[in-house]
Design brief:
Blueprint: H1 34-45, E1 51-54, E2 65-70, E3 76-82, E4 85-90, H2 108-115, H3 117-139
Antiparallel strand pairs: 1-2, 2-3, 3-4
GO biological process, one term: regulation of canonical Wnt signaling pathway
GO molecular function, one term: kinase regulator activity
Family: Belongs to the GSKIP family.
Length: 140
């Protein structure tokens, strides 16, 4: 913390901080908590994998969270979730391997699509059922 001799009440109201400057984060409105984001990711696709949960061993922070996923093919992965997207950081739960240089995916759907043919099939079938239901609703 910086020491200051000036009375904060003497500062002008228009300090020139732009709305999109780094100072907006202090209000807490624009800060994304990656743990919450990770929980949402898990809830979105849990039905299409064997197992998926936010890691309780690896550290979560505002800018990073780790998700363990086991595909229907029984392959295990540890995923890193950041602002850049999702990527595989290890081939087991609760691990990270710095030597692994895997690409980032914008969505969990595209990541799982690339890892698991069974995920693709289950997700596609769920989508078809949903579309059929919508079609029936619109016809009634």
């Amino acid at each position: 913390r910086m020491e200051t001799d000036c009375n904060p009440m003497e500062l002008p109201n228009n300090m020139g901080f732009e709305e999109d400057s780094d100072y907006r984060d202090f209000e807490g409105t624009d800060v994304k908590d990656m743990r919450l984001e990770a929980e949402a990711v898990v809830n979105d696709v849990l039905f299409a994998v064997s197992n998926m949960f936010v890691s309780k061993t690896l550290p979560c922070a505002e800018d990073v969270a780790y998700i363990n996923v086991e595909t229907r093919e029984r392959n295990r992965y540890c995923l890193e979730l950041t602002e850049a997207g999702l990527r595989v950081v290890a081939y087991d739960f609760d691990q990270t391997d710095d030597r692994l240089q895997t690409p980032y995916h914008e969505t969990v759907y595209s990541l799982l699509d690339s890892l698991s043919p069974a995920y693709r099939e289950v997700f596609g079938n769920a989508l078809l059922q949903r579309l059929e239901a919508l079609k029936k609703d619109s016809q009634s």
